[in-house]
Amino acid sequence: MCAALALSMLAGCNASVEEETSSSASLATTAATTTSEADSTTTSASTASTSSSAVNFENIASSELYQAYYFLLFMVKEGHRLPDGFGDLEYDECSSEENQFVVCDVDGDGVDEVVLEWCACEPESHCTYVFEYETDTDEWNLELQTAGTAEFYDNGICEAYYIDPAGLYSSYSPYLIYSYSPETDTFESCGSVSALEKIACDEQGVDFPTSYDTDSAGVVFTIDYEGYSSDYYNLSEYLDFIGELQGEYLPTPYMPLIDENLESEFRDR
């Protein structure tokens, strides 16, 4: 996949990030406002549910770090908002329960981050965010904002798999590549991978670059990464590439973003 397509995918996943940090005080204020707004526009049954969430919002977690993460996820669930400076989230009520989260250390710095997979929008606009709360400065750090669903490895590599709006010519999902930088405390974009399969190309009338399929696997890959050209690579060459790229896979047991999971995840932490 060319770099231009990667950039267009990133541009479509959310409004641009204007600031790198945001205070938890602003987050808590916005969340309280969101709760108030919900109270004024729902039925009595819904209001009772929202009020219950508001009580949990203030008492659910004991540590500053996990309380901040609960604040953030509560605001996302109730108001479809990120902390101040990071924009609002595209929202489609019909798919809201598909949103997921996990709290774990995905960058290897010894501190848990909160990973949000936002699916309440068109499939092409699905996004993943990684936030870390800096308890010493009372600020939020957005480590990653990317299209698609992210997978993490213990060497700091992240692969974000997305839906290609240009068409599906392979059963291999295209993905963007990021590498965690301790200096910037962010996942920095460093490449992308896409594939073409002969069967899919033939079905859709797209020319398949047979001359590059030297191992006759019926698939070739475009690898945009340091040390690799824009030419196609066969399956064996691709497998060698990911063998060098990936470390050990980090499990990220995502949970649906619902009240029950928020309480079970953060209670007494």
Throw out a few tags for this protein.
single chain; 269 residues; alpha+beta; seven-stranded antiparallel sheet; five-stranded antiparallel sheet; 7 helices
Structural account:
Strands 10-9-8-7-6-5-11 form a seven-stranded antiparallel sheet. A five-stranded antiparallel sheet has the order 4-3-2-1-12. The termini are far apart. It has one domain. With 269 residues, it is of the alpha+beta class. The model is unreliable at 1-21 and 34-56 (pLDDT under 50). It has seven helices and twelve strands.
Total strands: the figure is 12
Binned, the helix content reads 25-40%
Radius of gyration: 21 Å
Instruction: Count the DSSP helices.
Output: 7
Uncertain spans: 1-21, 34-56
Class from secondary-structure proportions: alpha+beta
Could you state the oligomeric state of the chains shown? single chain
Number of domains as seen in the coordinates = 1
Largest sheet entry? 7 strands, antiparallel
Anisotropy-based shape: elongated
Strand content: 25-35%
Order of helices and strands: HHHHEEEEEEEEHEEHEEH
End-to-end distance: 42 Å
Write out the strand line-up for the largest beta sheet, numbering strands in chain order. 10-9-8-7-6-5-11
Q: pLDDT average, as an integer?
A: 80
